[in-house]
Amino acid sequence: MKKKDALYLTTTLPYVNADPHIGFALEIVHADILARYWRLTGKKVFFSTGTDEHGQKIFQKAKESGTDVQKYVDHYAGEFGKLKDALNLSYDAFIRTTDEKHIRAAQEIWKRCAENVGPDGHDIYKKKYKGLYCVGDEAFIKESDLVNGKCPNHPTMEPIEIEEENYFFRLSRYQNDILKYLERKDSIVPDWRRDEAINFVKQGLEDFSISREKARMSWGIPVPGNDTQVMYVWFDALTNYISTLDWPDGANFKEFWENGTTYQVAGKDQVRFQSIMWQGMLMSAKVKATDHVIYHGFITSGGQKMSKSLGNVIDPIAIVNEYGTDALRYFLARHVHSFEDSDVTMEKFKEAYNADLANGIGNVVARIMTLAEKHLDQPVNIGKPELVESFKQVLNSYKINDAIDHVVGYGMSLDAYITDKEPFKLIKTDLSQAKAVIAKGIAQLAELNYHLQVFMPETSKKISEAITANKKPENLFPRKE
Predict the structure, then answer these.
(1) What digits encode the pLDDT tens for the residues 6-30?
(2) The domain containing residue 407 runs over which residues?
(3) Which of 277, 296, 315 is a domain's end point?
(4) How far is residue 134's CA from residue 153's CA, in Å, rounded to a whole number?
(5) In whole angstroms, how far apart are CA 68 and each of 61, 63, 122?
(6) Which one of 57, 235, 241, 336 has the minimum C-beta count within 10 Å?
(7) What CATH number has the domain bearing residue 408?
(8) Is the CB of residue 155 less than 8 Å from the CB of residue 148?
(9) Cα–Cα distance list, 233 to 38, 71, 93, 106, 340 (Å)
(10) Are both 190 and 99 inside the same structural domain?
């Protein structure tokens, strides 16, 4: 298989200190759409996701709940695992950072970075450090980055001052190499996130702490050769992108990372971690850098960031239970921007469901298939449809919203075609011509459906079965009052 035909795709790993929320549903559904599209075009895809299960936040949450920490992460890993069926996901691997193979890989990348020596010393070294630490980010933060004395990502949390001796990763050594990597235009999508990364690197990269004292934070992967320290959660967790491929010697790693094209999907707050810190780690370990990182925006609700305290968190499982999997997949594809922040409320969701699905796709499928069932003697013989070039162009640019607009446009065109040709009237005056109009409408529906499958696979399957059986399907999207 040619290099370009083997593609690796991964989401970030959600932190297992709460139930899945719609923000992660956005990330994994958008990734799933890309994976399904690539497979449809003949590519071999390895699609991975999983759960991030170490660190101080998780340890504290488990302690507060009076639960053994391993049982705590097992529970939440199970909750995230349920998304596969709930969202009809096509991923190939689910990696947990408590998996033995991940632990081995994290310790191996540590050893390789520690063995790497430059003119200023080893890439991993030990020193005493004092600084402000954000438990929410599991990271040290500069005073200059504080907003009203708080971490900008966690404005309700007080940073705590920590002084201890830790291991550090010499990220500063890779500043020029990372800048060179970021100069490649497709290293980050969209462009303005790449500009953000470049500007951050040009300000000067600082070495970062990659371990914690086990006496203070015991829940983590032991540092090789020093059982008094555990790995910093980011150094551990980032390694999942290759541990899932059985790095360093696995066949999947060789096929999909070394010889394939690699893609990561992440939220906009991850630029520093995914495109700078992680790439520096890969360079130190002498592993190929990620080819492309695609960053999406946040989902807000009612103009505010979602939080339990505000009561505006939207549960994707609850939406699926009421409206169905494909209704949520459709909404996340069309009404949540591929790269920018998007405001989502249940009122907006219901409005889109009724307008776009119940009165849109569902209605036009019912119109044409009712005509076919009543007036055609046999199913229409549909040839092999092909993806139109304009559709491929926008998906090749990761513009999921624009791609699904093509499908919506097909539906509107088909609806207009039925209204204009009036086959329901033509039947009374010219049955042969009416059948020809209906058959052409079925062909248009098949083309719509071929493009629909990457977004709404279950609905697409039902439409295919209806065309093959020449029968109107059950109501695909019952209207919600």
Answers:
(1) 999 999 999 998 889 899 999 999 9
(2) 345-469
(3) 296
(4) 9
(5) 10, 7, 37
(6) 57
(7) 1.10.730.10
(8) yes
(9) 32, 19, 21, 10, 28
(10) yes
Supply the pLDDT for residue 149: 83
Report strand pairing: 261-267 vs 226-231.
unpaired
Per residue in 414-473, pLDDT (tens digit) is 999 999 999 999 999 999 999 999 999 999 999 999 999 999 999 999 999 999 999 999
CATH number of 149's domain: 3.40.50.620
Task: Please count the structural domains in the chain.
Answer: 2
Residue bearing tokens 């529970």 = 75
Q: Of 236, 240, 229, nearest to 167 (Cα)? A: 229
Instruction: Report CA 279 to chain centroid distance, whole Å.
Output: 19
**DSSP H/E element including 30:** helix 22-40
Note whether 352 and 279 are same-domain residues.
no
Q: Has residue 119 got a pLDDT over 80? A: yes
Domain annotation covers residue 355: yes
Three-state SS for 294? strand
Q: Rounded distance, CA 112 to CA 454, Å?
A: 40
Q: CB–CB of 129/166 below 8 Å? A: yes
For residue 299, give the H/E element and its range.
strand 299-301
Q: Any bridge partners for residue 265, and if so which?
A: 294
